[in-house]
Structures are given as C-alpha cells and as structure tokens.
Write a structure and sequence with these properties.
Length: about 230
C-alpha cells in the first residue's frame, strides 16, 4: 500500500467518523432537546463510538483488538538477533491510539522461524501425476475424490540469516504486544519471501493437475488505430 493510498484511507475514515458524530448530534430529539439546548454530557463520545462501530461493522477499518499477540507486516531491517518491521495498516484500527506501526522483533534461541518454499519440480510432478490417477479412478467410479490436490510449496525451517528486507512476516508473541514497540517473538512465519525460487516450467507434455485451470491463452494484439 503506497503512502498516498494510506493517506487517502485515513482521510476517508476521519471524514466518516466526523460525519457520524455530526449526524448523531443533528439527529431528531424529543421536544425541548436539540441543537438549541446545550449538548448532554457524553454526546460526542457516544457519537464517536457509534460511528466507529459502524465503520467496523462495514469492515472499512479493522475491528479493535483488546489484546494483540500477532503482528503482520514487512521487514525493514535485519540485525544480528532481531529485525524491525512496518505493520500492515490494514490489520490495525486507525482510530485506536497507542498502537505502534513500527516494531522491533527480538529473536531468541527458542523462536521458531518457518517459511513456505517451492518443492523440487520432480517431486511435485510425481505428486501431481499420482493425484491425476486417483482423480480419474474416482471419476470412473462415480465418486468424489476427498484428497486435496498436491501443493507446490512445503514448509521449511529457517534462520535469521534467511530473512531479508521486504519479507512479509506474521510474528507471534507470548503475551499482549498491542502497544509494545519491542518484544520477543515465539514464532515468525515468512510469507512472500525473497528466498522462494521462481516457479519452474512444467515438464514437456505434462498435464495440469485436475481441478486447476489450464495455462492462460494469450490474447491477440489489438488492431492498430486508424
């Protein structure tokens, strides 16, 4: 998410909240109660809470979490036994104050670091071939195959040396780290990681795994404009 997009979302949220508060204040009231009389204590707070709840219900913003033991974002710097990360804005309620968007994650000897890496092409090709045979046999028997198709990825144990700037990570802590700028990690799961190799080309003549779409057919070039 770019800085311009994040700023636009923040402005939208702020506008919606102010609108909710103003709408609450201007809502019809019983005779003798209205803008002509001083607002009652808690009117602003009630309007703010109502607008905030509506935004959360509409999923415009993330619901507020009382406790936070999981932080999601991208690594910005890797050190000897820790790394800093920027938190994904979409995972944090922008109306909640005191939640740091930059964290320092400390790794201990007990921290588990894992990542999804692509399988050896030959291993995946064999798994795909075996799955196709099972799928065909089940279809011939008029039965549904309950086994899931094979995955091209396998979980691998990593070390801090495998982490680099830009890695997308999900960090789990043992306690509430909602307002912590620095904390120890129990586990780090790497998602969109730089150490993943590019997808290998399929073996010549290999069939796609059943249940997966075939390769896209390139569209013809557009006709030249006259």
């Amino acid at each position: 998410m770019g800085k311009g997009t994040g700023k636009g979302i923040a402005m939208l949220v702020a506008g919606l909240v102010v609108g909710g508060i103003v709408g609450y204040a201007a809502a019809p009231r019983p005779s003798g109660v209205g803008l002509q009389s001083p607002p009652s204590k808690g009117t602003y707070e009630d309007g703010y809470k109502a607008a905030k709840k509506e935004l959360e219900d509409l999923r415009v913003i993330a619901p507020e979490q009382e406790t936070m033991t999981e932080v999601v974002g991208n690594i910005t710097e890797v050190k000897d036994a820790s790394f800093t990360m920027s938190v994904d804005a979409s995972t944090v309620n922008p109306l909640v104050q005191g939640v740091p968007m930059r964290r320092e994650v400390v790794l201990t000897k007990d921290t588990k670091i894992t990542g999804m890496v692509k399988k050896d092409p030959a291993v995946y090709a064999k798994e795909a071939k075996d799955y196709d045979k099972k799928f065909a046999a089940a279809a011939a028997a008029g039965e549904a195959l309950k086994d899931p198709p094979p995955s091209q990825f396998v979980e691998k144990t990593l070390t801090i040396k495998d982490l680099v700037q830009g890695d997308h990570v999900t960090v789990t802590a043992a306690s509430n780290v909602k307002t912590a700028e620095k904390f120890e990690a129990v586990s780090v799961a790497v998602g969109y990681s730089s150490f993943q190799v590019s997808a290998p080309p399929p073996p010549e003549g290999a069939k796609p795994v059943s249940g997966t779409p075939p390769p896209a057919i390139p569209l013809p070039p557009p006709e030249p404009t006259r």
